[in-house]
Write a structure and sequence with these properties.
Strand content: 5-15%
Number of strands: 13
Strand order of the largest sheet: 2-1-3-4-5-6
Shape: elongated
Bound molecules: 2-acetamido-2-deoxy-beta-D-glucopyranose
Largest sheet: 6 strands, parallel
Membrane topology: Single-pass type II membrane protein
Structural class: alpha/beta
Order of helices and strands: HHEHHHEEHHHEHEEHEHEHEHEEHHHEE
Number of domains: 2
Transmembrane segments: 27-44
GO molecular function: glycosyltransferase activity
Radius of gyration: 23 Å
Protein name: Exostosin-like
Oligomer: single chain
Keywords: Glycosyltransferase, Golgi apparatus, Membrane, Signal-anchor, Transferase, Transmembrane, Transmembrane helix
Length: 456
């Protein structure tokens, strides 16, 4: 089954055929099928305009209706999810607890759940509850190694050297990691540093599957820890304040009510593009809102206040910061401004199924200036509305919702993971015999491999 997975490229979000039923398109745009096997499709092209609608306005599961243009997940990923993921238990591997809660065990998952890096906790928790979780290592397609190291490091729970040592200790206890050379093991690195958080990633986990929002890290390191062909870009963690459908605190404004053409609301951090925007805002204060914000004090915006400002422009500029990904890109979908990416190296999630030209703009970062504002000003409101309405259809893919929710960042990540599954595993230190038994170089059977495993 898996080896027969479709190679078809994902179809784009529908660029063609706009029906005059935008309101219904917004709401009825997603529909899904949950049949005996999990089987869902996301509907982008030509949504019929007579979908029943739930009071909440959320996506409504509908019976499968067939038809030619359905694009996701079938065209992007294959017909259904069939996946077994083993999640290492904190009690099973010495050192995992330190990677989760710090050397003294004092850092709580709750501390680590908030903010743009919350994905390291959310993905772990969602996998623990997932119907695709298996408790049997022998039948697992993939292995998840939980760690909240971004948070743990930020909160002083582990230093860089301890992070490296602890990872090495953990990995040396995993025979299955040794068997595949790490190729079927999954790690989450939720920040711009990507896998560089584990300084020796290149020696120990350079074949593993890395989930990270960051596809590039060229500003400080000479090698990128992201590899397009084995790793997966995940969306950053947008504040629950905005993503929880029922309790969404800040609603989008109608285009005509927005005060600004564009905004950038963030700290400059000494980055060229951001500094240019802050300067530009001084020249064109009625078009561009871009105050110089600070990390704390009166020039810091509170969470709600931040979103209040963000929704007050037609375009939300998303310049590169310390690294190329930016949470602002994802946030813009929840206040419904068109994201304008000013970060040349960015990699975006789920490119099998999302055509980003339909929902965003990417502008060369060396052309930040009056020219950019002139260009944005020339875009008719109806084009903006069209992009926003398509954005409404995909934004569910930025939300780390429970698996019962058929469209979510987690669902899409599971589809991506499924593409990484292999029937066969090997490494330079893995051998096999006529009867299918794996051995190591000393012809010791796999079942007799005992930790500590040699690494690298
Ligand atoms: C991974 O690291 C090993 C050395 O530890 C190196 O030989 C190999 O080329 C690296 N592989 C990739 C894909 O970078
Ligand atoms: C396969 O063959 C090897 C060598 O003859 C033997 O040691 C091993 O137990 C066999 N494995 C199975 C599963 O029969």
């Amino acid at each position: 089954m898996r080896s027969m997975m479709s190679n078809n490229k994902g179809r784009s979000l529908g660029a063609h055929h706009h029906l005059p039923c935008t309101r219904m398109q917004q709401i009825g745009a997603l529909f899904l099928v949950v049949s005996a096997f999990f089987f869902a499709r996301l509907f982008f092209d030509r949504p019929p305009c007579d979908h029943p609608v739930r009071a909440s306005g959320g996506p409504l599961p509908l019976p499968f209706t067939g038809g030619g243009d359905l694009s996701w997940p079938h065209r992007g990923y294959g017909p259904h999810l069939d996946l077994k993921i083993y999640v290492y238990d904190e009690d099973e591997v010495d050192g995992l607890k330190a990677l989760l809660y710090g050397r003294d065990g004092r850092i709580t998952p709750k501390d680590c759940l908030k903010g743009q890096w919350g994905t390291q906790v959310k993905i772990h928790k969602l996998l623990l509850q997932s119907r695709f979780r298996t408790r049997k290592k022998e039948e697992a397609d993939l292995f998840f190694v939980p760690a909240y190291v971004k948070c743990v490091r930020m909160m002083g729970g582990l230093k860089d050297k301890e992070i490296t040592e602890t990872y090495v200790k953990v990995l040396s206890q995993l025979p299955y990691f040794r068997l595949s050379g790490g190729r079927d093991h999954i790690f989450v690195f939720p920040s711009g540093a990507g896998a560089h958080l584990f300084k020796s990633w290149e020696i120990y986990i350079n074949r593993s599957i890395i989930l990270t929002p960051e596809g590039d890290r060229t500003d400080k390191k000479d090698t990128s820890a992201f590899n397009t062909w084995k790793d997966i870009i995940i969306p950053g963690n947008v504040d629950d304040l905005m993503t929880t459908n029922e309790a969404r605190a800040i609603q989008p404004l109608p285009l005509s009510k927005r005060k600004y053409l564009a905004n950038y609301l963030g700290r400059a951090q000494g980055k060229v593009g951001r500094l240019k925007l802050i300067e530009l805002a001084k020249q064109f204060p009625d078009k561009l809102e871009s105050p110089e914000l600070k990390f704390s004090g009166p020039d810091k915006l509170g969470r709600a206040e931040y979103f209040e400002h963000l929704r007050n422009a037609k375009f939300c500029l998303a310049p590169r910061g310390e690294s190329s990904w930016t949470l602002r890109f994802y946030e813009s979908f929840f206040v419904e401004c068109v994201p304008v990416i000013l970060s040349d190296q960015i990699e975006l999630p789920f490119q099998n199924v999302i055509d980003y030209t339909q929902i965003s703009i990417k502008w060369p970062s060396n052309r930040i200036g009056p020219e950019l504002l002139e260009y944005l000003e020339s875009i008719p409101d109806e084009d903006i509305e069209r992009m926003l309405s398509r954005g409404r259809k995909v934004k569910c893919l930025w939300v780390y919702a429970p698996e019962s929710s058929p469209c979510s960042a987690m669902q899409a990540t599971l589809w991506e993971l499924q593409r990484k599954v292999r029937k066969f595993h090997q490494s330079a230190e893995t051998f096999w015999l006529h009867n299918g038994s794996y051995t190591n170089r000393d012809l010791v059977k796999f079942s007799d491999w005992k930790p500590p495993m040699p690494l690298a």
